[in-house]
Amino acid sequence: xxxxxxxxxxxxxxxxxxxxxxxxAASHTITIASSKAPVTEGYRMGEARSPDGTTxxxxxxxxxxxxxxxxxxxxxxxxxxxxxxxxxxxxxKMKAGGVDIVSTYVFWIHHEEIEGQFDWSGSRNLxxxxxxxxxxxxxxxxxxxxxxxxxxxxxxxxxxxxxKGWKLRSDDTNYLAATKILYGEIAKQLDGLFWKxxxxxxxxxxxxxxxxxxxxxxxxxHLGQEARLDAPIYTRTGWDQPRGHMPFGELVPLYGxxxxxxxDRKLSPMxxxxxxxxxxSKFRVDDATxxxxxxxxxxxxxxxxxxxxxxxxxxxxxxxxSYHRRILFNPKDAEATALIKLGSGSTLLGYYMYxxxxxxxxxxxTLMESQDTGxxxxxxxxxxxxxxxxxxxxxxxxxxxxxRRLHLFVHxxxxxxxxxxxxxxxxxxxxxxxxxxxxWSVRSDGKSGFVFVNNYQRxxxxxxxxxxxxxxxxPAGALTFPQKPVAIPSGSCLIWPFNLDxxxxxxxVWATAQPLTALDDGDVRTxxxxxxxGIPAQFAFETNAxxxxxxxxxxxxxxxxxxxNIPPGTKVAARMRLADGSCxxxxxxxxxxxxxxxxGDLRGRERVFITHAGLVLDGENLRLTSTSRSxxxxxxxxxxxxxxxxxxxxxxHVDGIFxxxxxxxxxxxxxxxxxxxxxxxGPLREIPLGKxxxxxxxxxxxxxxxxxxxxxxxxxxDIDLATDPILRLHYTGDVARxxxxxxxxxDDFYNGNVFEVGLRRHxxxxxxxxxxxxxxxxxxxxxxxxxxxxxPHFGKADSVVALQQIEIISRYQLQLLAx
Length: 819
Hints:
Layout (H helix, E strand, L loop, with lengths): L5 H7 L9 H6 L1 E3 L24 E3 L4 E3 L2 E3 L2 E4 L10 H10 L4 E5 L2 H4 L14 H10 L3 E5 L15 H4 L10 H18 L10 E5 L8 H13 L6 E5 L14 E6 L53 E6 L8 E2 L4 H13 L5 E4 L4 E2 L24 E2 L13 H21 L3 E2 L16 E5 L4 E6 L10 E10 L2 E12 L4 E11 L2 E6 L1 E9 L2 E8 L7 E3 L6 E3 L3 E3 L5 E3 L7 E6 L5 E7 L1 H4 L2 E6 L2 E6 L3 E5 L2 E6 L7 E4 L5 E3 L2 E2 L2 E4 L2 E4 L12 E6 L29 E6 L11 E7 L2 E6 L2 E7 L5 E4 L6 H4 L2 E5 L2 E2 L5 E2 L12 E2 L1 E8 L2 E7 L1
Parallel strand pairs: 1-19, 5-6, 5-13, 6-7, 7-8, 8-9, 9-10, 10-11, 11-13, 12-48, 24-30
Antiparallel strand pairs: 2-3, 3-4, 14-15, 16-17, 17-18, 18-21, 19-20, 21-22, 22-25, 23-24, 25-28, 26-29, 27-28, 29-30, 31-32, 32-35, 33-34, 34-51, 35-39, 36-37, 36-51, 38-39, 40-41, 41-46, 42-45, 42-50, 43-44, 43-46, 47-49
Helix pairs in contact: 9-10
């Protein structure tokens, strides 16, 4: 074992040119204080022990699995907004993306739309959904309301409840009696599925975005406990603070951040304080969403915030469009805001939404939020895609890969992070328009840690940051790196380690590459790194480290302990053989390949995979899916003895430390959809404003679509719906609705994105039925916000409506069997 004398590391590893000039050091300096012991007492949670003896508890740093820090990833997926026969595959996609916990709302109106008639059938079957999560190896957080929001009608309250005249979201005895019945029904659904039963349900959230009297939240918790909603973690959303005294330890507050929101009343980009979501901060509350700015009139964080672990449940994985505000989401928005939360101290990355969906049909009404029902926004009637990492038809979006790369890091080094408080630099950005100051933070336990840098901000080109060199003042002395200053490219999001234990006591003093993941194969431990775009990967080791054998890189510096000039690839860059016969090796991947890295269990063994296709691991089966045939490549480390397709073993060859398999690329399948104009658009509708405070434009009603332009769409009869094809509608207009035999399938508020619809879900009628799209014209002067780059060119016209093109995109799939 190689021990670490930090004072020697600081002095001996600093090569002749390692220490930066005083100007640079002063501008990128952080001082790390000694960390405090975590708070461990006072949490009043449910049963923490499962039947096999595994415990799930918490302290002020993190969740604890068997007493050890656990830093999971959580993703929101609404079961009632997705067909039950597709749940399993989508949950496996979530798991492959690095999600450990599925969070889901139980919308009261979805289950008791008619008083006294509970419906837990079909896609509303909470019990079957939770069981499917367990089968997929996922844990579950149940957000049981009674008020949820989630852009659902009445925030999830049934209409009959509103008609009672009771004081809702309060300790009104009648309201509590109805809530008790709801909780009892949820408990029946979850019976035997709680953690204490060996089930996957580890968390219960009570209420949502609540700022009434604090005692009501405690009342709801007690009602839930009486109904036998027993879980190791009880939570509430932490951004809206309840009034009065909230007893410590009753409910753990969870936080969030959104890059930009559909709910704002302004018709301009990035209003309020959304820019703060792209800067590291000690504040947990996303003040931009709630119209208060910490540091400029106080903080929304409660006084006891540091006694709870920093957990999130609503990092924006995407963003919905309201009628008046059409957000065009950038995949980098999700990566940057998640990195910000992680670098600011979070030990649970929770996304809303991680998976999009479609609103179910209501028995009495539509089920979306609308201004007509007294809520702030008009939402699409059916569409709840949310531009999420996984779309409403299971589409894989770019941020799915960006976030998976981050999740690989969290899963490997998250337990270290839990005991590493976040520290902000001596010099921080001083305002909204400060784009020159580097945005960075450090998480450290006083000995080792990680530097987080974000040089991306939504709708703002961030300039490269030149001459960047970090000085970290640790209790044992200062560490400055890299050896020479570097330029941080525009748009970069990165994590660089210092004093990282690579295993067996071997210490990496610093690196200018992002740790991806690590894998142990016998006595060989391989650590994978991702090269930072535009910055050469360098690794500095202790001078008393084991001899470094270079295979692709070169050694420089004092004592030949600076590894550099590394061509990224699947080969080992450097290897260290230890006295006990074990070995540590480093692999550096280029940025594009790093986004194709997956890690998971195949045939009972953990492996690393490289493929640009979507990957799902299902026991001994491995499924690859993509809309592009060129994505079907696959490398595995360590490779299984054999991998077969349709009963035939695949040939393979060595590619660095991987085995690369020769795949049978699916045959090209191309289908064309025809469309024909049925009706031209009628006169423009006048767009009224809503009647609530700060009124905004209201969405069209059913009757308004009499003035829509209509096209009939012909789907080829010989199309193979087994390929799960996507219909892509390129259109320009205001609102589009797709109808099949007169039934409303789904809709879209135009924001510049292509309107996508999964055809398989509507089989077989989609082949023989009357499929039509109705599009309302978009008025030049419509009081609607959308991004300038997608706003249509009106020319001299007062409005625009067009269906330019229709595509059918096949989703190819290969299922491989590992032996």
